[in-house]
Write a structure and sequence with these properties.
Blueprint (H helix, E strand, L loop, with lengths): L1 E11 L2 E10 L2 E6 L4 H8 L3 E4 L4 E4 L1 E6 L4 E2 L2 E2 L4 H10 L2 E11 L4 H12 L6 E9 L3 H12 L4 E5 L10 H14 L2 E5 L3 H13 L6 H5 L3 H18 L3 E3 L5 H12 L4 E5 L1 H5 L2 H5 L22 H11 L4 E2 L32 H10 L5 H15 L17 E11 L18 E11 L2 E5 L2 E2 L19
Parallel strand pairs: 1-4, 1-5, 6-9, 9-10, 10-11, 11-12, 12-13, 13-14, 14-15
Antiparallel strand pairs: 1-2, 2-3, 5-16, 7-8, 16-17, 17-18, 18-19
This protein binds N-(aminocarbonyl)-beta-alanine and zinc ion (2 copies).
One zinc ion binds next to loops.
């Protein structure tokens, strides 16, 4: 099947230009000067022609931080791979990197296999895995090399959640030493979980059990402290470190310092930390704040966190925007913490809205169009060993393409989203811009506000090492 996308504005990290894009099968065959494609399409007999006039033609979004079906707090994240990846496609994301999970006493290989089993034949879009090491022991350390050889080239460690996923400094150092040998990227959840648990216990014993105390008991300073500690450990081990879901100015400062000194330190943030806050959302009346419980927590609007995060995205101290998509319904899931915020499952769903929400940064003048593409597609591909197969519109790359209409609007609501959630964290938000057409490896998944894909369209991606490591 050949498809010609005509008259659009192709956007890359380095600029934008009018061009036509020819797709042959699953790959991009050529980028053509406007006006030359008529002859080419006649010659190649393009079976489908899409008019992209007035639209941006951008590489498909890559969400490198999702948790489909994550077991957490006695329940499971509510999106299956089938539902979550279809919702991602609706929002212009054509690749996810999900986190397979290993915990104490569990065998890494068996855990990974169970993740393959959950995803296989289910996904609407292409998918890859990081591996969470929640129980670092000799067997887990040994398994890391084999996983890297098989395309699982990044590992997530937690400085938070003692007794669940937590690793102590010695365990972290050992994993980092291994990564310095085998080239893996270390993804770090940086919050001082030991101190947080003490503060949370003290709050609960005073009867402070509402959702807002989830945020109040996780001070930004403890994200800054953990970020600094992880950087120092990474430097001792000689390993790269990538901070996931960075939320606080105090953490961003530590990342910026390390980067200024020339170290392999990277970070992502997520839309919830750019748009939502502790007072209005986590502190919403009644139990509504539970819908906004995630870790690290939403930060206070009084501080400069939001402004600093947008600046970090401009300066590249924040290289990536992911979602940390981890949806739970209010009913029966978030409600587990009705009596005590510590029992609310942590996570917010948003895989469907990332491209729209970050495009809003372009509209607001916080980011350039090129930087939107870079943070949402090209850098995630480079960071996690998928480039140039993914993350770029170039001859030979996978034909993962989004036609984005800057003149249309998107209304976000639980009534219209495609995620398995009974509320929306962004309810009622009106976005300037709209995901019009989504193409994944040459197949049109979204067109004319309808889904044309099928379960199982998505393929597993074996990743290489990060392009950023030399
Ligand atoms: O609250 C969050 N972030 N839930 C998902 C697990 C994690 O820490 O990424
Ligand atoms: Zn985390
Ligand atoms: Zn996460």
């Amino acid at each position: 099947m050949t498809t010609l996308i005509k008259n659009g504005t192709v956007v890359s990290t380095t600029g934008r230009h009018e061009a036509d894009v020819l797709i042959d099968g699953e790959k991009i065959a050529a980028i053509l000067q406007p006006g030359t494609s008529a002859a080419v399409s006649a010659e190649s007999g393009a079976e489908k022609v899409i008019d992209a006039k007035g639209k941006y033609v951008v590489p498909g979004g890559i969400d490198c931080h999702t948790h489909m079906e994550l077991p957490f707090g006695g329940t499971f994240a509510s999106d299956t791979f089938e539902i979550g990846t279809r919702a991602a496609a609706w929002g212009g994301t054509t690749t996810i990197i999900d986190f397979a999970v290993q915990k104490y006493g569990e065998n890494v290989r068996e855990c990974l296999d169970s993740w393959f089993a959950k995803a296989e034949g289910e996904c609407a879009i292409d998918y890859a895995f990081h591996m969470i090491l929640g129980g670092v022991d000799d067997a887990a350390l040994k398994e890391m090399d084999a996983l890297v050889d098989e395309g699982i080239t990044s590992f997530k460690l937690f400085m938070a959640y003692p007794g669940v996923f937590y690793s102590d400094d010695g365990q972290i150092l050992k994993v980092m030493q291994k990564a310095s040998e085998n080239g893996a990227m270390i993804c770090m959840h940086a919050e001082n979980g030991i101190a947080i648990d003490v503060i949370a216990e003290q709050a609960a014993s005073r009867g402070q059990t509402d959702p807002i105390y989830h945020g109040i008991t996780r001070p930004p300073r403890l994200e800054g402290e953990a970020t600094n500690r992880a950087i120092q450990l990474a430097l001792v081990a000689g390993a790269p470190v990538y901070f996931v879901h960075l939320s606080a100015s105090e953490a961003l400062e530590r990342v910026a310092e390390a980067r200024n000194e020339g170290h392999n330190v990277y970070a992502e943030t997520c839309p919830q930390y750019l748009y939502l806050n502790l007072e209005d959302h986590l502190g919403a009346p009644g139990f509504a704040g539970a819908g906004y419980v995630c870790s690290p927590p939403l930060r206070t609007k009084e501080h400069t966190h939001h402004k600093d995060l947008w600046r970090g995205l401009r300066t590249n101290d924040l290289a990536v925007v992911s979602t940390d998509h981890c949806p739970f319904c209010m009913k029966e899931q978030k409600e587990l913490g009705l009596e005590d915020f510590r029992a609310i499952p942590n996570g917010i769903g948003g895989v469907e809205h990332r491209m729209d929400l970050i495009y809003q940064g372009v509209v607001m003048g916080e980011l350039s169009l090129e930087r939107w593409v870079e943070t949402c597609s090209t850098t995630p591909a480079r960071m996690f060993g998928l480039y140039p197969q993914k993350g770029v519109i170039a001859a030979g790359s996978d034909a993962d393409i989004v036609l984005y209409n800057p003149s249309a609007k998107t209304h976000i609501s639980v009534d219209t989203h495609h995620m398995s959630m009974d509320y929306s964290a962004y309810e009622g938000l009106d976005i300037d811009g709209h995901v019009d057409t989504v193409i994944s490896r040459g197949k049109v998944l979204i067109e004319d506000n309808a889904y044309h894909g099928a379960k199982g369209d998505g393929r597993y991606l074996r990743r290489g090492l990060s392009s950023y490591l030399i």
